[in-house]
Amino acid sequence: MTPIGRNGAVDDDEPVEAVLTFHEQADGRKVARLPGGKVVLLDLHQMHRVADGERWSVRLRHKETFAIAEPLDLAREALIPNPVLRSDIAERLSSLVAARPARPVEGTPPAPGPPAEAPEPKPAVVAPAPPAPPPAPQPVPAPKPPAAVSPREVIRAADRVALFVDGANMDGACRAAAYFVDYRKAREFFLAAGQFYAGFYYIADFTASDPLQQRYLDFLSHAGYIVRRRPVKVIRDQDTGERIIKGNLDTEIVLDMLNTVGNYDVAYLFSGDSDFERAVDLLRSRGKRIYVVTARSQLSRELAYVADKPIFFIEEYADTIGRDDRAPGPAR
Questions:
Q1: Tens digit of pLDDT for each residue in 53-109?
Q2: CA distances from 264 to 241, 270, 275, 293, 303 (A)
Q3: Which of 61, 115, 195, 286 sits at 20 to 30 Å (Cα–Cα) from 187?
Q4: pLDDT digits over 176-230, tens only?
Q5: CB 39 within 8 A of CB 67
Q6: How is the chain split into domains, by residue range?
Q7: DSSP string covering 213-252, please?
Q8: Quick one: which of 326, 33, 9 has its CA closest to 181?
Q9: Distance between CA atoms of 132 and 118, rounded to whole angstroms?
Q10: CA 264, CA 260: separation in Å to the nearest integer?
Q11: Average pLDDT over residues 322-328
Q12: Residue 257: in which H helix or E strand, if any?
């Protein structure tokens, strides 16, 4: 469906109606994005109608930094029209088919003719016995995948440990791994035998009155995390009129990692973003060990080059740090 704006014209920035695919986040919200990048939140009272990963035709109510979607109809593949022949072409094809001579139906016996003379019998030829088949090759067992590395192999008892969680980046990583991380379990697992200094969780705040997000942030606070929220800002280009929505917390993450550098020996960075390359490189030059936690598909090459090894891929720890109550839909 082409996005229709408020004045009836095509509008990709603030359409009144659109067809969007909704994905569930770690905080329980189901969200989508418009072509211009604006975040769309599903109406709280309609969330039971829309499953994770479904594509819906929706009506939109726009706010400054986000939009609220009211689901109308589930979009299906059948919405793509099937090709139909024009009536004149169909009549022409019908006449051509009718004019062709009928062919006998396969399997119908032919009409009887004069009896054929019986051929003289020939002496039977005995075929030689076929050679014995070679023995079937024995199947080669597949190599076993390497065992996942445990944090206990890299964390010492005297290590002071900090966790820095990029919430938006980890939402994508959890979708790729097909489960949501339970950050209470993750804290205990990655701490191993070390001493817990602090955990930081960073999230862009689209609306301050979302009860689902607030409940999730309350859980993180009770799990021992310091929650950093940053309101989303809207900036309009004075020359082009383009609206830019900014909610990136990379700067806050780097500032906390540098300002608290004297309080930890080991830091886990829950992100695969290449923007952290220089910060990780600087912290390691000061003697800190920085381990990355992310999904394989989310890890940037730049961050992989500078981080301490091993890199902890969350696909390998679903049974240990996964949430028990729900999981995201398949990645798309």
A1: 889 999 988 887 788 889 988 887 544 444 445 556 656 766 665 666 655 545 555
A2: 45, 16, 22, 17, 20
A3: 286
A4: 999 999 999 999 999 999 999 999 999 887 665 678 888 898 999 999 999 998 8
A5: yes
A6: 17-77, 151-321
A7: HHHHHHHHHHTTEEEEEEE-EEEE-TTT--EEEE---HHH
A8: 326
A9: 38
A10: 7
A11: 78
A12: helix 250-259
Q: Kindly state the tokens that stand for 309.
A: 């090894």
Residues 229-246 have pLDDT tens digits of 887 766 666 666 665 555
Element (H, E) at 188: helix 183-191
Does the pTM of the predicted model rise above 0.90? no
Q: Is the dihedral of CA 225, 228, 232, 238 positive or negative?
A: negative
CA distance 164 to 280: 12
- Our CA angle for 316, 324, 53, nearest 5°, is 80
Orientation angle between helical segments 250-259 and 277-285, nearest 10 degrees: 10
**Three-state DSSP state, 6:** coil
Nearest alpha carbon to residue 72 among 19, 143, 15? 19
Residue type, 133: P
DSSP for 304-320, written as a single string: HHHSEEEEEEGGGGHHH
Candidate CATH numbers 3.90.180.10, 3.40.50.1010, 3.40.710.10, 3.40.50.720; the one for domain 151-321: 3.40.50.1010
Any long-range contacts for 173-177 (C-beta under 8 Å, 24+ apart)?
173/270, 173/272, 173/294, 173/295, 173/298, 173/314, 174/26, 174/295, 174/314, 174/328, 175/23, 175/328, 175/329, 175/331, 176/295, 176/296, 176/297, 176/298, 176/315, 176/331, 177/295, 177/314, 177/315, 177/318
